[in-house]
Amino acid sequence: MLTLSYKKLFKKLIDIEMQHNQLMEKANVSRSTFYKLKKGENVTTDVLLRICNALQCDISEIVECVEV
Fold first, then answer.
1. Which residues pair with 65 in a beta bridge?
2. What is the 3-state secondary structure (H, E, C) of the chain?
3. CB count, 10 Å around CB of 67?
4. pTM higher than 0.85 for the full model?
5. CA angle in degrees (0–180, nearest 5) for 12-14-27
6. Residue (of 67, 36, 21, 3) closest to 48 by Cα position
7. CA distances (Å), 12 to each of 6, 17, 18, 25, in order?
8. Count of alpha carbons within 13 Å of 44, Cβ hemisphere only?
């Protein structure tokens, strides 16, 4: 079974030295939605695209499909 992993997103935040609060503000993502990402839960593609726009990156740089 495949699921989405957001580990790339959190690695990218470390690499660019961006705090979680900064990303939430810049991408207009609520705290509850951000915690869904941290827990590996599903979020809408709209949220992922806002994060991509805020980080000026492609979705493949923040999300990957992994086997469970």
1. 4
2. CEEEECHHHHHHHHHCCCCHHHHHHHHCCCHHHHHHHHHCCCCCHHHHHHHHHHHCCCHHHCCEEEEC
3. 6
4. yes
5. 60
6. 36
7. 10, 8, 9, 17
8. 7
Identify which of 12, 31, 11 has the alpha carbon closest to the alpha carbon of residue 21: 31
Q: Model confidence over 3-62: pLDDT tens digits? A: 999 999 999 999 999 999 999 999 999 999 999 999 999 999 999 999 999 999 999 999
